[in-house]
Design a protein that fits this description.
261 residues, D-Maltodextrin-Binding Protein, domain 2, five-stranded mixed sheet, three-stranded parallel sheet, 39% helix
């Protein structure tokens, strides 16, 4: 659910264009390797993060990645990287796909192919528990300090409103820590993430209003791979039909967020 960062990977796209003209379809490469290289942040609970006891990656995205890889007949190979460089890494071929809450939008679709959406969510404000203002739109936050993830669609949404002082953070924990300590007035992030996190955090913060349209999250990969695209679509369609995608959704959120509201 993040902004395109096109300037960071335009050069990588140009450099790889000639290779794509003669390269095998990504599906053949993945099948021959026996693994699907999946990039994610690894610090974005409940979507993808490390279990404190085992150190293993867990979360909604992790389960979806395992499910998709299984339906492709391969194993998932996880690569964790900061969000600010994750799309550039995909453009340069460091991994096959990103399964890490990547919002589908026209600018990104100019650069990458996307699967159908596998989860839907909407932006939410997070505020301190003692906050008396009842903000219901970003426009009401003019003159305020709003924290958002670096390179995220939430950062872009906040920056689009003149008068908001946007503070960018590499990950949600730093953002929410600054909110709790009063360094910012509100945080803007994924509503599903916020709802889940607020059930477990000890920070003096609470949910604010939902302030934007529903976002569609999909799986991006490099263009020019029609067989791979068809295989990913079939994997997600089969997962929806047999109930396995819904089961993952209910496991993490108590409801089916894999379908459009």
């Amino acid at each position: 659910m993040r902004k395109p960062l096109m300037s960071l990977f335009a050069a990588a796209l140009l450099a790889g264009a000639a290779l794509h003209a003669s390269a095998a379809d990504l599906l053949q490469t993945v099948k021959a390797r026996g693994t699907l290289k999946v990039a994610m942040e690894g610090v974005y609970a409940p979507f993808n993060y490390r279990d404190q006891k085992t150190g293993e990656l867990v979360g909604y995205d992790v389960d979806v990645a395992k499910l998709v890889a299984s339906k492709l007949g391969v194993k998932p190979e996880f690569v964790t990287t900061e969000w600010a460089s994750i799309l550039a890494g995909l453009a340069s071929g460091k991994y096959d796909v990103i399964i890490s809450q990547v919002g589908i939008n026209p600018k990104r679709e100019q650069v990458f192919d996307f699967s159908q959406p596998y989860i839907y969510s909407s932006p939410m404000l997070i505020v301190r528990k003692d906050e008396k203002n009842n903000w219901t739109s970003l426009e009401q936050l003019k003159g305020k300090r709003v924290g958002a993830g670096q390179g995220s669609v939430y950062e872009a949404q906040a920056k689009a409103v003149p008068g908001i002082e946007v503070r960018s953070y590499p990950a949600a924990p730093e953002n929410l820590s600054d909110l709790a300590s009063g360094r910012i007035d509100a945080a803007l992030n994924d509503g599903l993430m916020a709802t889940w996190l607020l059930k477990t955090t000890r920070l003096p913060i609470k949910a604010g209003a939902r302030v934007g349209a529903v976002e569609r999250m999909g799986i991006p990969f490099q263009k020019g791979n029609p067989q791979f695209k068809a295989a990913i679509e079939k994997a997600l369609n089969d997962a929806a039909a047999d109930g396995s995608l819904k089961a993952i959704s209910v496991k993490w959120f108590g409801t089916d967020v894999s379908k459009a509201p």
